[in-house]
Predict the structure.
Amino acid sequence: MSNLPAYIFALLSIPLALLYANAIEWVAHRYLLHGVGKKKTSMWNFHWGEHHRNCRRHDHIDPSYERSVFGWHAQGKEALGIALMVVAHLPLAPWAPLFVATLLFTAAEYMYKHGRSHRDPAWAREHLTWHYDHHMGKNQDANWGVTHPWFDQLLGTRVHYAFTEAEAADLARRGVAANDSPDRRPSVPPPAGPSAEEHAA
């Protein structure tokens, strides 16, 4: 890399940072939040014990994401963890400014997308389908990516649930039609297959 012209390195650092951030998402979600975090005594248990419980009880809504981020709840703890990870990478800025700037973007993207998905389940089901599947599907130990499903697709951990016969059967058992509740489900017919981003990936 050091032999490449500086501008080529700078340009390459942007997609590398996007992939790196998605890899961190996948690893931290799978091994930290769902591995260590399933132990009730773990400091990471807020994710499984609080966040997942809320989402299952409220059809993907987590009430902590309707409150201020400055609180000792799932959203606040998540924001603190992301802030610490960003700070840990800041010393790289003098040597890889675009890499660090892209990481800052991915952190903001994560906070926006994850927060919105747990305030607006219909939006999540349509635009962040893989994360909706993570919480509402039969297997909550899959679909580790939040902002993008790239590493799930690469590593075979993408498991579809929304817009499938399995989801329709679950909703029928609960007496809920897929499109009859605007605050929880889309008010338009679902797409024919995977989301637009998954087609593009």
